[in-house]
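Quick one: LysR family transcriptional regulator from Pandoraea oxalativorans, structure tokens please.
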Amino acid sequence: MSRQLPPLHALRVFEIAARAESLSAAAQELSITHGAVSRQIALLEAWLGQTLFVRQGQRNVATDHARAFAAEISAAFDLMGDAALRFGKAPQTRVVRVNAQTTLAMHWLIARLPAFHTAFPDVQVVVTTSSGADPAFRGGFDVAIRRDPPARPEWQPYERTPLFTERASLVAAPSLLEALPLRRLKDLAKHTFVATQTRVGAWEDWLSVAGVPALRPVRFHRFDHYHVSLQAVMDGLGLGIGCTPTLDRELAAGRLVMPFPDIQADGATYVTLVPRDADKSTPLRDFLTWVHEAARAPVVALTSPARRATSPATRRTRAGSTG
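--- reply ---
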């Protein structure tokens, strides 16, 4: 089937000009004259039958229609660049591009990367983050790490391998518990709960496992993203629901504590996703082996011996092990 494509060079010039919101900036980036940029824009406008830039004062400004078109073109260029990297000659630089959701990158992956670099000093790991579960983000990746990605058709081109399953429990800043101790479950009613819109039902699940499903706090604070909620908890704004092993580092460092460590609810499963048609380079295979071994590594001690001695009695959880 014959494709009706606009002039590709004109598309490239237009995408840069729209992104930079300046014809002069596009000329500088491409090392061509301002007039050459204008001619390419005019060529594309003639092909499309649409005005892409309008004059506002001393500047040429992209129309709303042009900005929307530029976003589509930019994504297409990213896909082409990604395909060239995946199917072209193996690069001299040994790079693994990892895209992870923000909370996992901040609290689990980055803390473990020094161990990877010690084992593989000649491999560069480039980490980008995403706040959603959608695979179609810009820039491409060699491996993505996602939390409970939905079983949708757009995920079929990816090989999915479980990384670890979280266990959810109550977490708090030590300073908060010094000011307002938690000795019994009923003391929860004296506290503020911190929740997140991206993990709906986390509090209800934990309270149900704890045997107090009807308990209500003094107030709720809700945030749009989990990593923001965690920061609020660490700052002492209220109690939160945190997950291991994602928060092992914060628990080991004492930035967070688990007041009732034996009461844990089922959490989500993180998985690695690798494009099925990707060239599985040696650095990528090494990273995948390492990250899965890191996920299976023993969990650090979550509470001090003194804390364990004063913890409430163990309660049965919905998933037997707390590993």
